Amino acid sequence: MSTTSQPQQDALLPTPVLVVEDEPLMQQRLRMLLQQLGYCDDALAFSSNLAQARVHMQEQPIALALVDLGLPDGSGIELISELRSADPGLYIVVISAWSTEDLILAALRAGATGYILKERDDLEISFSIRNVLRGGVSIDPFIARRILALLPGSPPLQDSTHADGSDDAAVSLSRRETEILQLVGQGFTNREIAESLFISRYTVETHIKNTYKKLAVSSRTRAVNEARLLGLLP
Description:
By secondary structure, the protein is of the alpha/beta class. The chain has two domains: 2-149, 3-Layer(aba) Sandwich (Rossmann fold), CATH 3.40.50.2300; 168-229, Arc Repressor Mutant, subunit A, CATH 1.10.10. 51% of the residues lie in helices and 12% in strands. The protein has eleven helices and eight strands. The chain has helices at residues 2-11, 24-37, 50-59, 76-86, 101-110, 122-133, 141-149, 175-185, 190-197, 201-215, 220-229, and strands at residues 17-20, 44-47, 64-67, 70-71, 74-75, 91-96, 114-117, 138-139. The strands form two sheets. Strands 2-1-3-6-7-8 form a six-stranded parallel β-sheet, sandwiched between helices. Strands 4-5 form a two-stranded antiparallel sheet. Helix 8 (175-185) crosses helix 10, helix 8 crosses helix 11 and helix 9 crosses helix 10 (201-215). The model is unreliable at 1-11 and 157-170 (pLDDT under 50).
């Protein structure tokens, strides 16, 4: 009985799927989540940059696209616009570490039907993809709050800028975040950091996620490099 129901379930999923993501670990994570939704490997295509994604677009139509914004050869927003022009009914979900208002709005205007942050857990990302596949528009709660704040009459977000209008607050790390990021830069694992600082591993992971958000990055190496460029780390 299960052998006949499984193909029917898979047939309901729009295929093929194009995942545009340059981080290998994030590619593996998305592959696993899509497999859990019922996709087989043959239905999944992965691109690490815009050029590869455009080749896939020329080779065959795409039914679902998961797109990162920060790609090695340009912005994912360009690709979203091209995908939407090629197929007005295409499902397009942004899965990115970027959470600035201009990029969020640009992605939605280009045609994205969902926007979720990479820092969310697997269940949240899976739920967002499911929601889009059912015809909904899935927006990360953090992003939705920022968009609502842009509406006339809404109070400004207090944690994004200083009173003088500068955006230094977006890239200022707390003492603990700086301490943890220094250990990350030295090659310590989350477990080793937790043992060194006598805090839980969950606390370490939370601080690292907050650091990713502030620096608008999606990996440990990028976080350390960006922090050094900004003078936040020696």
